[in-house]
């Protein structure tokens, strides 16, 4: 029985096939009859012999390593003085690499959601060789020639070292096809650093930016306003919700402390688990959970008001409102809670009034930086997986692999 397995390499002929204890060794010869002169750039076809044999790692066969051996052809130029020779360049490998291009593409797919160490161990390659493959194919900063339009930009920060406040800024984007791009890993969160990057975006691409999503940090918003004056700045709904829900949760904690002092142990025990019940919307609670929550409200009427107005605020953000309508609703909400004396929301009211324009911009196209939060979670996984990455260029490459590598290397 004969088994034929294509090498998927153009313009070569197999001369010899050897089976060794470590894998397969295939000797091949190029069938191309010319090359380009390295001096004058003209096609040349005067055969001049062979260069020293080279060995290239190729895609495995039946899970066994494969090496290709080839003696590159040399050709002599008839037009140049002294007749210099040029080694034939084949499209399927790079003269600077000990691997075929197909093998390196395969290894890069292996690296997605993995580590250099893991891939090195699985494929029997040194870590330096794996790093070399990454560096040959993935830049340590954005390649603007690969991007046509980015209508939505996201700016956020992450801490490289837990508890050290060692922040870097992640700038990412969504293109018109809803595909994610990582644009930059900046060394600090200073307005000047972010502004300089935004200003350096090529003019044709900058003209496509419509919205920038930020958290409630003035350094980011001011950088966007100054570098992208015609772009709408949106304070992400996630950060807004985290803020007002935190206010409600603080009120619950204070009331629960007071109830523990005033209720009997038996009655207080009936409120077990109320923290999780209080945090959920009424419609998704079970009947038993609703009963527990009503019991809490009977003991603490103020928490009932806090709960109602927290959910009312969520309903405003869920409603199909225009920006103008949303501003009216949000300002009405402020008036109502102030008339009721719900001081637990005071800090959020100050935030809402300060950032009203940016917060209400969410209602224009109801876009948020949820993709930024998802990216941040991915970066946290990368940091844990790689035991911390503090080189920003290397971090950019790993993020790029996990975010964009799937598209380039054939994954959905």
Describe the structure.
The protein is of the alpha+beta class and 412 residues long. 46% of the residues lie in helices and 19% in strands. The protein contains 17 helices and 14 strands. The chain has helices at 101-111, 116-123, 127-137, 191-200, 203-206, 218-227, 237-262, 265-269, 274-278, 287-299, 301-318, 323-340, 346-354, 356-360, 362-365, 370-385, 392-408; strands spanning 12-19, 24-30, 35-36, 43-44, 46-50, 54-61, 64-70, 73-76, 85-87, 152-159, 167-174, 180-186, 211-214, 232-235. The longest helix is centred in the middle third of the chain and has 26 residues, at 237-262. It is elongated. The mean pLDDT is 90.
Rg over CA atoms, rounded to whole Å, is: 31 Å
The main pleated sheet reads as: 5 strands, mixed
Number of helices: 17
Overall mean pLDDT stands at 90
Low-pLDDT residue spans: none
* Structural class by sheet pairing and helices: alpha+beta
Strand order in the largest sheet? 12-11-10-13-14
How big a fraction of the residues is strand? 15-25%
Distance between the termini: 36 Å
Shape: elongated
Strand tally: 14
Relative helix content: 40-55%
């Amino acid at each position: 029985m004969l088994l034929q397995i294509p090498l998927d390499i153009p313009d070569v002929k197999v001369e010899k096939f050897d089976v060794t204890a470590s894998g397969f060794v295939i000797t091949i010869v190029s069938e191309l009859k010319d090359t380009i002169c390295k001096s004058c750039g003209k096609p040349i076809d005067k055969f001049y012999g062979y260069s020293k044999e080279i060995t290239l790692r190729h895609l495995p066969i039946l899970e066994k390593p494969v090496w290709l051996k080839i003696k590159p052809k040399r050709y002599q130029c008839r037009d140049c003085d002294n007749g210099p020779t040029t080694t034939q360049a084949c499209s399927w490998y790079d003269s600077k690499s000990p691997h075929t291009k197909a093998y390196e593409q395969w290894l890069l797919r292996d690296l997605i959601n993995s580590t250099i160490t893991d891939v090195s161990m699985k494929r029997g390659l040194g870590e330096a060789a794996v790093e070399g493959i990454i560096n040959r194919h993935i830049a340590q900063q954005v390649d603007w020639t690969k991007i046509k339009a980015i209508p939505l930009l996201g700016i956020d920060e992450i801490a490289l070292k837990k508890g050290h406040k060692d922040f870097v800024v992640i700038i990412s984007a969504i293109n018109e096809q809803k595909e994610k791009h990582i644009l930059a890993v900046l060394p600090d969160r200073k307005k000047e650093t972010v502004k300089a990057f935004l200003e350096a975006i090529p003019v044709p691409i900058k003209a496509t930016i419509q919205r920038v999503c930020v958290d409630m940090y003035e350094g980011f918003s001011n950088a966007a306003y100054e570098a992208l004056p015609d772009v709408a700045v949106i304070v992400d709904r996630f950060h807004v919700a985290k803020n007002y829900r935190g206010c409600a949760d603080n009120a619950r904690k204070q009331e629960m402390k007071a109830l523990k002092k005033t209720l009997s142990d038996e009655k207080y025990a009936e409120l077990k688990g109320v923290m999780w019940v209080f945090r959920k919307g009424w419609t998704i609670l079970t009947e038993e959970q609703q009963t527990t929550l009503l019991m809490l409200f009977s003991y603490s009427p103020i928490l009932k008001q806090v709960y109602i107005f927290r959910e009312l605020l969520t309903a405003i953000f869920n409603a199909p409102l225009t920006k103008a309508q949303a501003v009216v609703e949000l300002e009405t909400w402020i008036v109502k809670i102030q008339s009721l004396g719900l001081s637990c929301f005071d800090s959020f009211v100050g935030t809402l009034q300060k950032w009203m324009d940016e917060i209400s911009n969410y209602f224009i196209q109801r876009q948020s930086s949820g993709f930024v939060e998802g990216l941040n979670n991915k970066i946290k996984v990368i940091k844990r997986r790689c035991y911390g990455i503090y080189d920003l260029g290397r971090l950019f490459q790993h993020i790029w692999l996990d975010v964009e590598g799937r598209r380039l290397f054939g994954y959905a």
